[in-house]
Amino acid sequence: MRIIRIIFTFILIIVGLYLVASFFIPSNYKVERTLTLNAPTDIVFEQIASFKNWEKWSSGRNNDPEMKTLFGPNSGKVGSYWLWRGDKAGEGRMTCTAIEDQKKISFHLNLSKPYESESDGYIMLEPNGNETSVILVSEGTNPFHLRVLNLMMDKWIGPDFEKSLELLKTLAEKESEIFQKEYFGYRIKETRYDGNKIGYVKKTVAFDEMDEFFTKNYAKIEEEAKNCGFSIEGKPMRLYYRWDYTNAVATVAAAIPVMGDSTLGEDYSLMQLQPQKALLLNYYGGYKSSSNAYKALDNYVRNKKLRQAKPVIEEYVIGPKEQRDSAKWYTKIWYLLE
């Protein structure tokens, strides 16, 4: 009996010490790792914004190649999610809870295997020229009787964070190298063209008559729109449908966004450009110096294996009427996608 009392007393002392110590252990934990990548922020953000890209650099996928995954809708937006299940990776769900464009993505992690737990985290980007510091953070709590685990979380999670950041670094720096070589330093964004109603005139025009065609028809579309009770809703646009280099002609349209319910004059038509997926390149400079911008877009379409739709759209946000310095002219170049 004495031995049993001693053992029981010893257990009580250990439990008591454990509970007393738990009062001094923080109720929450925070695991943080930082790595600097030799890549611009927009390239890094592209890798972190969508959970579909996380598979390429997440240590979970790297540690468990047979892991099964499922991605929810609205990739790259708040509410999108990633489900996984694997022998080594366990089973869990990650949900996007907030996005700050080019700065930060926040998420909630819910693990069901190998043990149940919940935590919140974020990836934050700090740009420094062509380099980007990536901060990966996970924060959570444990109940009072398991607070001692908070002392171990950095040791358990930290190495996986470090591995993930190293994989992200390799991917982003490779993308950055391609970006400089094949995209001539231009930023190309996969986005969505909102669509609009346009008044336009479409024609096959000789290359050397193209500038005259657009200048003349912009003025006439504006005049016709006002005469027919339309309001002008945007900047002049060029729509490119087909280039025939053999005969030095192109099928193009001069267009201006309008708003109204009647019809335009005899020589002009109305068309609704539908919302659809698109590439956007913001071009600054003179109109005759945009060849590299188009080469960049063409290379992007090829490298990403995208299917382009017609027409190509140039939208003249700032031009010679607003700004004398051609280096400050601003044109949105849209490649519509199927």
CATH topology grouping of the largest domain = Alpha-D-Glucose-1,6-Bisphosphate, Chain A, domain 4
Mean pLDDT: 84
What is the alpha-carbon Rg in Å?
29 Å
Q: Can you say what the CATH homologous superfamily of the largest domain is?
A: START domain
pLDDT under 50 segments (min length 5)? Answer: 13-24
- What CATH architecture of the largest domain would you give? 2-Layer Sandwich
How many H/I helical runs?
7
Binned strand content:
35-45%
Q: How many domains, in number, for the residues?
A: 2
- Measured between the Cα atoms of the first and last residue, the distance is 82 Å
Sheet with the most strands?
9 strands, antiparallel
Estimated helix fraction:
25-40%
N-to-C series of helices and strands: HEHHHEEEEEEHEEHEEEEEHEE
Number of strands: 16
* CATH classification class of the largest domain: Alpha Beta
Backbone shape: elongated
Structural class: alpha+beta
Short description:
The chain contains 7 helices and 16 strands.
Present the secondary structure layout.
Elements: H1 2-24, E1 28-37, H2 41-49, H3 51-57, H4 59-63, E2 68-71, E3 81-86, E4 90-100, E5 104-113, E6 117-128, E7 131-141, H5 153-182, E8 188-193, E9 196-206, H6 210-227, E10 231-232, E11 237-244, E12 249-259, E13 269-273, E14 276-284, H7 291-303, E15 308-318, E16 330-337
